[in-house]
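The following record pairs a protein chain with its ligand, adenosine-5'-diphosphate.
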Amino acid sequence: MKRRIFRSSLLITMLVLLCCLGILIGFVYDYYDDVQVRQLKDELGIAAAGMEQDGLKFLKDVRSERFRLTWIRADGTVIYDTIADENTMANHAEREEVISAFATGSGSAKRYSDTLTERTLYEAIRLNDGTVLRISMRQATVTALLRYMLLPIVLVIALCVVLSLILSKKMSRRITEPLDRLNLEAPLENEAYPEIEPLLQRLNVLHLQIDAQMQKLKQKTAQFEQSIGNMSEGLLLLDQDGQILTVNPAALRIFRADADCVGKNILAIDRDGLFRNAINETFLNGHCQMQFEREGKNYHIGFDRITDDEQPAGAVILAIDMTQQKLAEYSRREFSANVSHELKTPLQSIIGSAELLKDGFVKQEDIPTFLERIHKEASRLVVLIEDIIRLSQLDEKQPIPTQTVALDSLAQEVVSILRESAEKKKIRLTIHTEPTEMIGVPRLLSELLTNLCDNAIKYTNAGGSVEVEIKNKAIIVRDNGIGIAPEHHMRIFERFYRVDKSHSRRSGGTGLGLSIVKHAAEYHNASVTLESALGQGTSITVQF
Ligand code: ADP
């Protein structure tokens, strides 16, 4: 801006200067011309008077370098010339001033020399004898005048340039200083020129709009960061060159990266080069997915291209932990295999016994034993199927109506039902309760209690004891039976897991009892703890 002000003021100065010089020279030259013509006329008048009186003698006495006098006859021939030899001079009859003088009594003319640097002023007058006397004088032209004045003009121009340099510098500084001092952060607080007041007001409006937008942007960024921060899935945003723009804590954890990976290429955190092909394919085809395993966990990684105006603008990478799903899938598959196996065994036994009976291979006295076996296996099947149905109902996690349950009475009922089988095994079954009411599902709580007590009786030898206790909103079932070795503690709640398969089968176990206990407890938000030592007994507590 300073330079522009300086340039324009210099240009204006030069233009004004040149115009002034032109006009001045024009006026001066005109005035000078007028003066010379008048002087020439005066001189001619004097010369004409001299000629009328002294004739040729007057002319011969003239000794002037400035003026030249020429006496011309009516036919145009030169009678006498004060400077040149009249015999060598051409006929003057066609000269403008001479024609006019012969015709009207006087004539004037101005003619340029060949070089254009000089011109000659002519004045002519007709004398009484019919001849014409002409006076002429050389005069410098404007060009010559300019040439003559070149030095002063150059000096004046130089002076003007220097002056305008100094002045325009000062002026531009004075104009721009208040603009330099403008506080654009608070446009309305400035006291600069009134002319820029509307601009400052507009700037202020823009400022307010930008502030509001920035605020919104900050809020949105915070919301975005908060949401991706709380995601359990790993999220990475890349630009079109594969540089990381955003990464959430879950992704940092999954890919074992530091927060300073932002701004670096994705390959910097992909040490094994697993993503290279996937990313290339994503940018090419728009989508790619892969499985990724780290520290015993399985991840599904989805790559999706982000486009802006149909041009690739980047990619989003989402890593989902599939470990639980994989485990669930695995246990589902294992469960199905176990169910088929568990169903097959009693069915084979039933079919085998029935075939032997049908073909008459069984002795008459053994028939009741065979029928007893068929009945026992069929009953086992029914129990097994009931347990499977119960478990699958619990798996579906569908809400079951709850009600107030008197846990102590429920435990008393269960114990009274199992008392007979305990007595059969010569096991002392005791119960201690305190009045306990809770909100729950009576059927599930009854199954939970039955399974715990039934196991305690099943896995306690004759002469042992089983103790059921209801206190502080907890069910405790204790026995002094065979106990469970520590290596099985974690697994006995798994479906179909048994420490001793044949013992379990002999005693009518399905391997699903404790799974049902675990699910029923989970349904009531209760924890299950097991204390057991091999040969010493087992205690299971369900704390509601
Ligand atoms: P099961 O139908 O075989 O009893 P459960 O799921 O009820 O199946 O129990 C799983 C396994 O845990 C049993 O097979 C048994 O080995 C062990 N178990 C359960 N309760 C006891 C207990 N009170 N004492 C010793 N072992 C037990």
